[in-house]
Amino acid sequence: MGVPELPEVESLAGFLRERAVGRAVVRADITAISALKTYDPPISALVGLLIDDVRRHGKFLDIEAQGVHLVIHLARAGWLRWREQQSTTPVRPGKGPIACRVVLDDESGFDLTEAGTQKKLAVYVVRDVAEVPGIARLGPDPFTLSAEDFGAILHEAGRVQLKGVLRNQSVIAGIGNAYSDEILHVARMSPFKPASNLSDDELHVLYTAMQETLRDAVDRSKGLAAQDLKSEKKSGLRVHGRKGEKCPVCGDVVREVSFADSSLQYCATCQTGGKPLADRRLSKLLK
User: Fold this and answer.
1) Which end of the chain is more exposed for a tag (fewer CB within 10 A), N or C?
2) What are the residue boundaries of the FPG-type domain, all occurrences included (predicted)?
3) Longest Cα pair distance anywhere in the chain, in angstroms?
4) pLDDT of 284 above 50
């Protein structure tokens, strides 16, 4: 279901806080060299340190151990697999989906895995999270935004489409392709509506939809094991990834607009006054 977004990463952070805080790192191995984006400090600097906290920054997971941060961006095909009894056998580089293995002092730990051939999973070992370019560029977190600040962001975005504003990490952190579709469906707004074209009432509706959609998803994921978060995300989505299915609100068919590397889903009855949006990829073919 694409890149883990704010609710899944928030839940992973909570999952790890319960299990890893107070434990010492006894092994930390990188097996996919392409995944490690930093070299100083080395990943071995984590060994012997106690984990103090686990946080989320946008879609980044931040495991802090006595001033050293292991920062993870799972990308589209990455995941964190927790084991109560972690294997201590060194993983052979280049073999299988494991990119990184961490073992803690109670023999628990986790593997970072990545499926497929596009290797985008990223691991950073830093003393300051601002050294991670993706974190340094992040906009405010949705949960820290007031309605007034949100309105100012949309006004400043001008004619940029709502879908693009919601998923731009430098504007608002943590919302991606899936939850931007969900928020716009709850708000009953077209993904192509210009951001600065909203009335005060529409601004309030969209702000409330953003807060409630994300909080509901976080609440649904609370307490779930790491391996169950992806299926929970999928089961909770109303329109995203549901092309051809019935809209749960009005019963119309969920439609799709395709782009070069992604697609969006929406309900024409709920969001666009019944008018199907032009499929950009299809219209290019017809020219």
Assistant:
1) C
2) 238-272
3) 62
4) no
Reading the block at residue 207, the tokens are 């702000």
Range of the domain at 38: 6-136
Mark whether 130 and 33 lie in a shared domain: yes
Q: What region, left, alpha or beta, does residue 213 occupy, with left being phi > 0 and alpha being psi -120 to 50 degrees?
A: alpha
CA–CA distances in Å: residue 47 to residues 12, 27, 92, 123, 283: 22, 6, 19, 16, 55
The number of distinct structural domains making up the chain is 2
Predicted confidence (pLDDT) per residue in 66-82, tens digit: 999 999 999 888 899 99
pTM for the full model?
0.91
Query: Domain check: are 180 and 276 in the same one?
Result: yes
